[in-house]
Structures are given as structure tokens and as C-alpha cells.
């Protein structure tokens, strides 16, 4: 890869995630100012959807940070950032319903969620160690280290790829639940989808970057092997 092509490649790796993050933040900011017709807070939305689906063992907690919302399958907790926990907005409803979508997945034993949860520890280790091994292998000319680094990084990439169906499925569940429970009206669906779709782009961007990096490492490994 020429220097110019490499610079373009690195620029794309930086631009794609930044664009996705910018998109989700601007969309969230816009619809955090638009209240739902039901005027339910995010916490109330989450509790209603959970109860309507017969899920009573999942707690709802407020957490710090902006867009730090998540579902913790180990402790059965939906954690909502303060703005979403207390907010009455379209954004708060969408994000809260999405996180509850993960709780419903967990209750139903959704396969991709179970696989992602089981893969998470190995993916974290793989992501942390792979670059050290690849860099060390490249510096010392030890292709075996590069190979091990690629193998570990592959686990982290697999985690990113498996995350996609988990997140899209949670968003689909969120839309269905928001409408069926009466949290939003039919004419509010479009705005809700915009929030959910913008959030989904961050996962797509992360997966694209991870796959691109894996391909680069694999090419580096084979080119280095051929030069020997």
C-alpha cells in the first residue's frame, strides 16, 4: 500500500466513526426537545414495556453520562442516562425502549444476544492484546506473533459483527413496543425511527472499521510471509 493510499485509509477509519457519532448526537439533540404525546418519562416507558411483557425481575436505574444507556444482562438492570430517565422526549422514549428491547431479548433467550454476551470477555482480551502482538511481530519480524495477534483481533471483530443483529433486533422490538403500548402515536413513528436509525449507524461504523482493520492485518501477514 502506497503512502498516499495508507493516509486515505487511515483518514477513512477516523472519519467514519466520527461521522456516525456526530449523526447520533445531532439527531438525539433534535428529538430530545420534542415531547411525546404520552408525556411519559424514559423510566416510565421502560417500566411499562417490561411490565406489559411480563418481565418483572429487571430493574431500572439512573446512570451518569450522556447516551450512556445500556442493559446489563448479568444484573438484570436497564440503566438510563439522566436525560433519558427523567425526560419526556421522543429521544428518551426511543432510547429507553431500545434498551428494554435487549431485556426482552434476554428473557426470550435470543441467540445472538447470548452469543455476544458469552463472547464479550474474550473479545475484550483480544482487542487489548492483539495490537501489542501485531506491533511486536512487525518490529521483530516475528510473523508468528502477528498471526496470534490477528487471531485475537478476529474475536474482537466477530463481537462487533454479532452486535449488529442484536442492536437492529432491539430497535425493531422498540418500535413495536412503543406503538403497541401507546407510548407514541402513529404520526410519531417517523421521528422515533430517526433516533433509532442514527444510533444503529454507530454500530455499523464500528463493524466496518473493525473488518477493514482485520483485512489490513491479514494482508500484512501474507505479504510479509511471501517476502520471506
TrEMBL record:
Q: Which UniProt keywords apply?
A: Membrane, Transmembrane, Transmembrane helix
Q: Which InterPro entries match?
A: Zn_peptidase_2
Q: Does the keyword Cell cycle apply?
A: no
Record-annotated membrane-spanning stretches: 6-24, 118-140, 146-166, 200-223
Q: Which domain of life is it from?
A: Bacteria
Short name of one Pfam family: Zn_peptidase_2
PANTHER family listed in its UniProt record: MEMBRANE PROTEASE YUGP-RELATED
In its UniProt entry, what is this protein called? Zn-dependent protease
Which species does the entry assign this protein to? Terribacillus aidingensis
Amino acid at each position: 500500500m502506497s503512502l498516499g493510499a495508507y493516509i486515505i485509509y487511515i483518514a477513512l477509519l477516523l472519519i467514519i466513526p466520527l461521522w456516525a457519532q456526530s449523526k447520533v448526537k445531532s439527531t438525539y439533540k433534535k428529538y430530545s426537545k420534542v415531547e411525546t404525546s404520552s408525556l411519559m418519562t424514559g423510566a416510565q416507558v421502560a417500566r411499562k414495556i417490561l411490565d406489559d411483557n411480563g418481565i418483572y425481575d429487571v430493574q431500572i436505574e439512573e446512570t451518569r453520562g450522556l447516551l450512556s444507556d445500556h442493559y446489563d444482562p448479568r444484573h438484570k438492570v436497564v440503566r438510563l442516562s439522566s436525560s433519558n430517565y427523567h425526560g419526556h422526549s421522543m429521544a428518551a422514549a426511543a432510547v429507553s425502549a431500545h434498551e428494554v428491547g435487549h431485556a426482552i431479548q434476554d428473557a426470550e433467550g435470543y441467540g445472538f444476544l447470548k452469543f455476544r454476551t458469552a463472547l464479550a470477555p474474550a473479545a475484550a482480551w483480544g482487542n487489548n492484546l492483539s495490537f501489542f502482538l501485531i506491533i511486536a511481530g512487525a518490529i521483530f519480524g516475528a510473523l508468528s506473533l502477528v498471526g496470534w495477534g490477528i487471531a485475537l483481533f478476529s474475536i474482537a471483530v466477530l463481537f462487533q459483527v454479532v452486535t449488529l443483529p442484536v442492536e437492529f433486533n432491539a430497535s425493531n422490538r422498540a418500535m413495536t413496543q412503543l406503538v403497541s403500548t401507546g407510548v407514541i402515536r402513529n404520526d410519531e413513528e417517523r421521528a422515533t425511527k430517526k433516533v433509532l436509525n442514527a444510533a444503529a449507524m454507530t454500530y455499523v461504523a464500528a463493524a466496518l472499521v473493525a473488518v477493514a482493520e482485520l483485512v489490513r492485518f491479514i494482508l500484512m501477514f501474507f505479504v510479509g510471509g511471501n517476502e520471506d
